[in-house]
């Protein structure tokens, strides 16, 4: 009689696709379960783990990145293996993962941006904020992009924390950024920047903004930067005023914005201009390159669901600008042979269990965590309870799992398969070597780390 699945004699074989916080929190939760023995393999497209903690968190927010200490301990667990530089759907297929693992967790995040859908959006100089974030963080997919920072004004569309991050990086003193782990190529470009004004556009009013108060206050602490807010933009309708009583974050934001609005002179060399109730309706350009933006004033009206929505009132204005960064939301991308919900750009699931979109029946042994589960909302910490909930479902389902064939249970099988295909696997020790290299380079320059931003360079360092 075969040993029980999840026992020491027959460990539960789990594959985690993606190595961001959500995936690590799910792995941690499974490892902490009493009376459960599991063997967890974490796959990632790049040699570097940690997802948006490495590639998305702003370089001047180093304290947030300290969460990787928890993830480091998970990688050191003998029950966990890291398979970096392995791409799901290319180096290994969905069917092959199913062959070698009892359960699969998809933790791939929301990898692309939403478009504004306005004329001129494809002019040179118009970018998703995700690309700019990836560029200054040294993400291999974006490190070779070129941003023209020779213009005097940049428009940032959005009022979330990502919009705040890109605005702050554009406005910050490069000497201050040089103390962070910002990518070297980005630092060099920002040192030559001619940008003097970053204009943030919020589609709705200040009471509906989704940034946090610490991020808003950081604007006022930037050396050589003034923050401008038009007092007229802070006039609230009745429903917005009422909403402040129920939303402490929004109420605190309004206090800070009103403090900024009291300023009437702006002597600093750089300026952040926050405007509310405006939407871009067209990007202007010449010879394929953007030259400005047409914006329209909005008004808030009831949305029929107890909230407010913004609609244009026909009053338009033209703004000269050399670059526009849109931060209007992320969205997930489908994975090969994995059910996908096109309506909300997530992997089709019910409470973390992957389901067939047509029947809503669970797909045996497949689960999802993080933004690709619930949509792009919440901060890093929000992933933990979300991942624990999915791990609960996985444990609950173990008794009904059809185990993989015993001949495929040997963990060495997957390594052999990938090696036979010529895939250069980056394991935990390899990552540790690359990590130490980056930290040592940073130490020499008085910085947290100096990132290696090309995959071939990463592999070269690992193989020295």
Task: Describe it.
With 464 residues, this protein is of the alpha/beta class. The chain has two domains: 195 residues, Rossmann fold (3-Layer(aba) Sandwich); 218 residues, 3-Layer(bba) Sandwich (FAD/NAD(P)-binding domain), CATH 3.50.50.60. Helix content is 31%, strand content 23%. The protein has 16 helices and 20 strands. It has a seven-stranded mixed β-sheet with strand order 3-2-1-4-20-19-18, sandwiched between helices. The chain has a six-stranded parallel β-sheet with strand order 6-14-7-8-10-9. Helix 1 crosses helix 13 and helix 6 packs parallel to helix 9. The longest helix is centred in the last third of the chain and has 18 residues. It is globular, with a radius of gyration of 24 Å. The model has no long low-confidence stretch (mean pLDDT 94).
Return the structural class.
alpha/beta
Poorly predicted residue ranges: none
End-to-end separation in angstroms reads: 48 Å
The fold-level CATH name of the largest domain is FAD/NAD(P)-binding domain
| Assigned CATH superfamily of the largest domain | FAD/NAD(P)-binding domain
Tally of helical runs: 16
Largest sheet: 7 strands, mixed
């Amino acid at each position: 009689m075969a040993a029980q699945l999840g026992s020491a004699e027959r460990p539960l074989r789990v594959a985690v696709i993606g190595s961001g916080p959500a995936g690590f929190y799910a792995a941690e939760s499974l490892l902490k379960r009493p009376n459960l023995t599991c063997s967890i393999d974490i796959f990632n497209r790049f040699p570097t783990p940690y997802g948006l903690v490495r590639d998305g968190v702003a370089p001047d927010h180093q304290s947030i990145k300290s969460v990787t200490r928890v993830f480091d301990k998970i990688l050191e667990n003998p029950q966990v293996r890291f398979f970096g530089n392995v791409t799901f759907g290319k180096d290994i297929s969905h069917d092959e993962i199913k062959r070698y693992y009892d359960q699969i967790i998809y933790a791939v995040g929301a990898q692309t941006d939403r478009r504004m859908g306005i004329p001129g959006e494809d002019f040179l100089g118009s970018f998703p904020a995700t690309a700019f974030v990836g560029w200054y963080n040294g993400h291999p997919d974006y490190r070779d992009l070129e941003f023209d920072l020779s213009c005097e004004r940049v428009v940032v569309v959005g009022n979330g924390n990502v919009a705040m991050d890109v605005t702050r990086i554009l406005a910050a003193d490069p000497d201050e950024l040089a103390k962070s782990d910002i990518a070297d190529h980005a630092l060099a470009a920002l040192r030559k920047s001619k940008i003097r004004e970053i204009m943030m556009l919020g589609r709705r009013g200040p009471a509906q903004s989704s940034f946090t108060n610490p991020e808003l206050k950081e604007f006022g602490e930037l050396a050589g930067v003034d923050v401008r807010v038009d007092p007229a933009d802070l006039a609230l309708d009745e429903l917005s005023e009422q909403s402040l009583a129920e939303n402490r974050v929004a109420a605190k934001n309004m206090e800070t914005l009103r403090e900024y609005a009291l300023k009437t002179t702006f002597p600093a060399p750089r300026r952040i201009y926050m405007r509310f109730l405006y939407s871009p309706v067209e990007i202007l350009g010449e010879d394929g390159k953007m030259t400005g933006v047409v914006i329209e004033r909005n008004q808030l009206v009831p949305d029929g669901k107890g909230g407010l929505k913004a609609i244009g009132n026909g009053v338009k204005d033209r703004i000269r600008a050399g670059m526009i960064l849109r931060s209007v939301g992320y969205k997930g991308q489908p994975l090969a042979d994995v059910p996908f919900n096109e309506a909300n750009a997530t992997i089709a699931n019910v409470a973390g269990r992957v389901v067939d979109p047509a029947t809503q029946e669970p797909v045996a042994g497949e689960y999802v965590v993080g933004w690709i589960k619930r949509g792009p909302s919440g901060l890093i910490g929000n992933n933990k309870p979300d991942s624990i909930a999915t791990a609960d479902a996985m444990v609950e389902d173990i008794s009904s799992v059809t185990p993989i064939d015993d001949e495929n249970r040997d963990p060495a099988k997957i390594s052999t398969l990938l090696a036979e295909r010529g895939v250069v696997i980056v394991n935990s020790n390899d990552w540790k070597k690359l990590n130490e290299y980056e930290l040592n380079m940073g130490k020499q320059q008085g910085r947290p780390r100096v990132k290696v931003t090309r995959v071939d360079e990463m592999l070269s360092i690992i193989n020295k």
